[in-house]
Every structure is written in C-alpha cells, then in structure tokens.
Amino acid sequence: MLKKIIASVVLLSLITVAIVQAMDNKPEPKDDSDSIGGLKIGAKAPDFTLETLDGKQVNLSDYKGKKVLLNFWATWCPPCKKEMPDMEKYSKKSGEDVVILGVNIDPENDVQAFVDENGITFTIPLDSQSAKRPVNELYKVMAIPTTYFIDSEGIIRNKVVKAMQFNEMEQNINSMK
Fold first, then answer.
1. For 51, 52, 85, 159, which has the most beta carbons within 10 A of its beta carbon?
2. How many domains does the chain have?
3. Residue 117: which domain range?
C-alpha cells in the first residue's frame, strides 16, 4: 500500500513538472542575423564607439539624422582595395547628410600608410580584434568588405557583402529616407 502511494506521488510530480514545462512559453531568443550572416535589414543599427586614425572617438549615434555608409574592410583584402577609390569618390560627391565610416578591422597593420597611399579622406575608425567586443562581431560581419546602409533614423536599410562600385553606393544611399 505504501509503495502504491509513493509511486502515485512520484508519478503525479512528474506529470506536474511536464505540464509546467509545457506551459512555460518562453519566447525563442531573438536572432537578428540573416541567412548570409550579419544583421538583418530593418534592424536597428547597434551603436558603437571607436577611435579613429587621428585619435578622435566616433560613435554611430553621433550621426543620427544622417545617412551612414558603414563599411568594414582590411588592408590585406583585395576587394576592399578595389572599392576604396569609388568610396573616396562617393565621399567627395555626397552631401552633408551622408557620412562614410570605413571601419578597419586590422589596425595592427599600417592602416595610415594604406590611407595615405590611396588618398582616403573619409573617417577611418579602428576596430581591434583584441577589444572586448569588436564592432565587426557586433555587426556579425562574416566576410569583407561588408557595407551596411543605415538611414537617418538608425535603421539598417541594406547590406552589401562584396566590393561595390560608385553607382551602387549612390543608389543605396538615394533609396533611403
């Protein structure tokens, strides 16, 4: 008789635990990446603070109200080198409502020499892999170059994972509010 009571209590306990777990509808963790890696189009662009080549601090949030072309690149990357002249040309043509941030992910290399050799004048923030949370990881960059087009409200409106030409930069910026 005692064994039947103990067995019934154990069985009732197990059933109760199973019911409670089944009713616990915790939402799945939000995944803000897409199928090709990186943050989803339509997501809020995460803010960050990085130091530029000239030692100044830059925050993405400083550019709220402006359109931002946020490019991740490295000095050793052939496609990155290929798109730099068009990016420089676009930076000179774009108006004051457009900001180009060329986030370099290999600051241990001679980034200044690369910038000087290529005549780059737009802002170059340095993203160190030794940082606690590198910005390229925050943006889930899987390949370089990767460019995010962020609208004036801080929303990612497009992402390009390849070297771009001038007309692609212009079209993406012009398509944003």
1. 159
2. 1
3. 49-174
